[in-house]
Design brief:
With 232 residues, the chain is an alpha/beta fold. It folds into two domains: 131 residues, Response regulator (Rossmann fold); 66 residues, Orthogonal Bundle (Arc Repressor Mutant, subunit A). 48% of the residues lie in helices and 12% in strands. The chain has a six-stranded parallel beta sheet with strand order 2-1-3-4-5-6, sandwiched between helices. β3, α3 and β4 form a beta-alpha-beta unit. The longest helix is centred in the last third of the chain and has 15 residues. It starts with 22 loop residues before the first strand and ends with a helix. About 9% of the residues have low confidence.
Length: 232
């Protein structure tokens, strides 16, 4: 497996914010060089502090218990053995620590895998090829309680969700699935309208329908709940 780390781009830092907003995170990846690279990149940020590292699921549970982080940055592939141990670890972490945010950072990208990770409790999914600014955006979004995806993961998630849209009476329309993908990228109604060449009021109508069908009260919950259901 390629042990890549996000590319470093200058100018990614945000101004220091409220000390209460400090993001304390644990890195879980079986490659030490990846963890070292991530730590080097992330600790340049005034609002991010790496409080622990782990290479294996059992080690990750011990480190999280000892450090009490607010976020875990998790690779899904944690050994050379077949399978994705990170999925079970994600479920175990979020079940044990309900307030813990888990952001997947991995090389694995399949249409159904993004949805599966969210079903297991992850709040976001980012591939390792993203640059530093995209990774930091995802970390901050997930830490604030929102969902976060890079463009490739967002597209994969929408395709994965589209594959099961006919299984439920509250199925989203093709347009609503498209809007859901843009919501996952954090776009506003106006930005969704511009992207799809529709009026802002039409975009707002689609968002309202999505929220109604998924029985949620906030935009950020729509992507999460849809992923948890696995079908609309």
């Amino acid at each position: 497996m390629t042990t890549s780390v996000p590319r470093i781009r200058t100018g990614d830092s945000l101004p220091p914010g409220d000390p209460d907003a400090l993001i304390e995170l644990v890195l879980v990846d079986d490659h030490a060089v990846v963890r070292e690279g991530l730590r080097s990149v992330l600790e340049r940020e005034p609002d991010v502090r790496v409080v622990g590292e782990a290479a294996r699921p059992d080690e990750a549970m011990r480190v999280v218990a000892a450090t009490k982080p607010s976020l875990v940055l998790l690779d899904l592939k944690l050994s050379s053995a077949p399978g994705l141990e990170g999925l079970d670890l994600c479920a175990q972490l979020t079940a044990t620590y309900p307030g813990l945010a888990v952001l997947v950072l991995t090389t694995a990208l399949e249409d159904s895998l993004v949805v599966t990770a969210l079903r297991h409790g992850a709040r976001g999914y980012v591939v390792k090829e993203v640059d530093t600014s995209e990774l930091l955006r995802a970390i901050r979004a997930v830490h604030s309680g929102e969902n976060a995806f890079d463009p490739r993961s967002s597209s994969a998630m929408v395709r994965g969700l589209t594959a099961v849209t006919d299984r439920d009476s509250k199925a989203l329309t093709a347009r609503e699935v498209e809007v859901l993908g843009l919501l996952a990228r954090g776009l506003s109604n106006r930005e969704i309208g511009r992207t799809l060449f529709i009026a802002e009021t039409t975009a707002k109508f689609h968002v309202a329908n999505i929220m109604r069908k998924l029985d949620v009260g906030r935009r950020s919950e729509a992507v999460y709940v849809a992923s948890q259901l696995g079908a609309f």
